[in-house]
Fold this sequence. Notes:
Blueprint: E1 12-17, H1 21-32, E2 37-43, H2 46-56, E3 60-63, H3 72-79, E4 85-89, H4 94-102, E5 107-110, H5 116-127, E6 132-133, H6 135-140, H7 197-207, H8 212-219, H9 223-236, H10 242-250
Parallel strand pairs: 1-2, 1-3, 3-4, 4-5, 5-6
Amino acid sequence: MQGPTPPPPAALRVVxxxxxxxxxxxxxxxxxxxxxxxxxxxxxxxTEALQAAAQHRPDVIxxxxxxxxxxxxxxxxxxxxxAPVLMLTYSRESRIVQECLRRxxxxxxxxxxxxxxxxxxxxxxxxxxxxxxxxTAAGALGLGAPRARTPRTATPGCGDGPLRPPPPHPxxxxxxxxxxxxxxxxxxxxxxxxxSAREAEIMDLIASGMTNRQIAAxxxxxxxxxxxxxxxxxxxxxxxxxxxxxxxxxxxAPDGASxxxxxx
Length: 264
């Protein structure tokens, strides 16, 4: 006599972060029809993605690169503390692909280069520790071998220092990619500000409009520690307000007002 049938495994919980509501709804529809995948939240920017990740504790996060406010690149090192992150974007630039991997992404899929089944497989794969790339992303990394699954080698967070990408093993053919696009002002020389890695990450969050409480939650530190970092950031940027510091950081301050401390 057979015992009771064991219950099916819990569905993978997914957060979709994309500022285009049509894309977000489409991805949700493609994934929700899978019995083993459930989209638990949608986010329109990096700040909402961080809030959704903290609230819903997803198994996988799908993240666009270019979003208003806190973009995907800035949110990425914080999101990987919550779950594996799979970049899902129209951005094909080689440097963006490489930077996403440096910041801890588990894979990079370019829209138009995958089927619904392949998307679902990639979600399952990164949850299991794999690395997944479509052919343009693989070409940007100089890869051409068939896809394989490998463990992730980094789960970086706020201020964790240099990030190591997961060993990439895509299914791919080679592809040419355009140059870096205007996600941020290319002329900004942020090295002159002499910020530490953690200070730079916090400055990214300040520039996105996040409050001290939101920054503390994203970085897993206290509000008092955030305030201490901000005091040091203001000193290095010669700023007396968040708006002034953000303008210098983003390169939108008037000429002559964006100088940092170059000799300290």
